[in-house]
Amino acid sequence: MNKTLFDKVWDSHVVKSIKDGPDVLFIDRHMVHEVTSPVAFLGLKKRKINVLFPERTFATADHNTPTINQHLPVSDPLSAKQLKALEINAKENGISYWGLGHKKNGIVHVIGPEYGITQPGATIVCGDSHTSTHGAFGAIAFGIGTSEVEMVLATQCIIQPKPKKMRIIINGNLNNGVTPKDVALFIISKLTTSGATGYFVEYSGKVFESLSMEGRMTVCNLSIEMGARGGMIAPDKKTFEYIKNREFTPKELEFDKAMKYWKTLKTDEKAKFDKEYIFQGNEIEPMITFGTNPGMGLPISKSIPKASSIIGDPTTYKKSLDYMGYNEGEKMIGKKIDFVFLGSCTNGRIEDFRAFTNIVKGRKKANNVTAWLVPGSHKVLESIKNEGLLNILNESGFKLREPGCSACLAMNDDKIPPGKYAVSTSNRNFEGRQGPGARTLLASPIVAAAAAITGEVTDPRNFI
Amino acid sequence: MAYDKFNILNSTAVPLPIENVDTDQIIPARFLKATERKGFGDNLFRDWRFYNDNQPKKDFVLNNKNFEGKILVAGKNFGSGSSREHAAWAIYDYGFRAVVSSFFADIFRNNCLNIGVLPVQISNDFLKEIFRTIEKNPKAKFKIDLPNQQIVNILNNTNEKFNISLYKKENLLNGYDDIDFLTNIKNDITTFAKKLPL
């Protein structure tokens, strides 16, 4: 039987297949955060059901948490209440809880891999669409709704139709200045935001093989932005090196046993995909978005396409450009910006901060730019300090904030003001995503760094 | 949370002919801070519906009294983005029982099915026809027939079939949910957990 990587992991977790319906899928790891869980816990209470496997459940606070003065009480009463609810729910159900102030606290998709909760061949869910991040380790990881969170808490299972399978191959090498974020934005610009809906993606080819684990996480993180439920990359030496000796990784004999299994997790040569795309690494340039969905991206040197040349509804397209205050045919290079946001589950890891720092080193932040640099976790924050990056950033006029989701979805105080432009390393440029009326340009950490120095959209290759 | 059973829905419809409507538009993140499922309908399409000072935007369809009904008809790729079930709650709590589009995002579709909102996926051509019908006659009625998996444009006497898994169909017809199903096979689940590969 020829199976894809996805088939192998999925099929080994099917408890039962419902006739003419979905599968009952067993979930190895369930990550829980404060926003999408309270109603699920309330549901359990009403039904008088306990959490079936509390040891497979991990709770953290990230979406609502402030990113300054975390030692003080949370001032927004609604956020404070939601954070408190998670703390109580975790405690009552015997779930490990790394809340605000805990040294392991951070964005759920950053800390999962950091502590080895994320492992190859596992099924991982969370009430957050960017759960796809964990696919970088060869796990099946996807976002779920609150009813499903309740389901998993109650039974450690979820009822899901098996998605179709897509493979995206990128051969060759990446050009200088092209990062994993650019690879993902390139793919989404080709496939559109609905191009992979109904599919689970496997990324393969030399470009993905040569990416670091953190780079792979960035790519898999953005799978949802082309509609895919998730994306995965077969585990290899880099994966095994990364996960070895982390807190939740199996140890000694158990690790050897796990390794034997993990090594089988790859697509068989003759396995079939429902859809396949092949690209070349050298086709990709540094990317930036100009519209209000992540599919509206283009190489940074190019101009905004004409409505007549796009696929899709021209009215929707024009509405989007109106929101951004842009016109068809304009060049992106040189567009004035007001804010820079480095962070999120997409680009809030140590390599992202290294890349950003490399560009701004010895240069100064532009006066017209407000920069929010938000580490994805306390561990990332610690590394930034230990590696001396903080000093370099400070000398260039940048300050660090404390870990959390921050301006990615603006649930806390980190909101981009109405009408302002932000170059953001996060994942969504939807209308109002970073605050009501905010205008988002999605890009890589080095595009963000270049913009932070010049105060306008700038080709990062000028600084390499 | 229990929801009203879905069988046959006869209603006028509210048109939203925009593509790629994401869940941040359906309900912006700042309204996700509740710890109970309450009041989400008030904030449905908040920033398209209201100005910052909470005054209604007159040109948005939900503020146009000509259009009302239990069916929301939207452009292609409705519900993309965030997994927030709050988007489906907002739609249900506002009073919609079905969303019609030519394409739905996966997580949003699942969320709808889990809470009693029926996502009706139809062809692009039939969607265009429905938009034209509503534009000409805002009081035009549509029949969404779950048992027969069919949507009927009553005025034009045209119809189209839609897909739904037998399992989810039974759930909606009877008001069941997945947890009822799963708790009944709990023994199978705990046995299965013991023979996982790792």
Could you write a compact summary of the structure shown?
The complex is a heterodimer of chains A (464) and B (198). With 464 residues, chain A is an alpha/beta fold.
Helicity of chain B, as a percent range: 25-40%
Question: Could you give a short account of the major beta sheet of chain A?
Answer: 5 strands, parallel
Beta-strand segment tally of chain A: 18
Average of per-residue pLDDT values of chain A: 97
Give the count of helical stretches of chain B: 8
Description of the molecule:
- The complex is a heterodimer of chains A (464) and B (198).
- Chain A is of the alpha/beta class and 464 residues long.
- Helices cover 32% and strands 16% of the residues of chain A.
- Chain A contains 16 helices and 18 strands.
- Chain A has a five-stranded parallel β-sheet with strand order 5-4-3-6-7.
- In chain A, helix 3 (77-93) links the parallel strand 4 and strand 5.
- The model of chain A has no long low-confidence stretch (mean pLDDT 97).
- Chain B has a single domain (8-194), classed as Alpha-Beta Barrel (Aconitase, domain 4), CATH 3.20.19.
- A seven-stranded mixed β-sheet of chain B has the order 4-3-2-1-5-6-7.
- The two termini of chain B are 34 Å apart.
- At the A-B interface, helix 2, helix 3, helix 5, strand 8 and helix 10 of A face helix 4, helix 6, helix 7 and helix 8 of B.
Which features characterize this protein?
heterodimer, A: 464 residues, alpha/beta, Aconitase, domain 3, Aconitase, Domain 2, 3 domains, 5-stranded parallel sheet, 4-stranded parallel sheet, 16 helices, globular, B: 198 residues, Aconitase, domain 4, 7-stranded mixed sheet, 8 helices, 32% helix, 17% strand
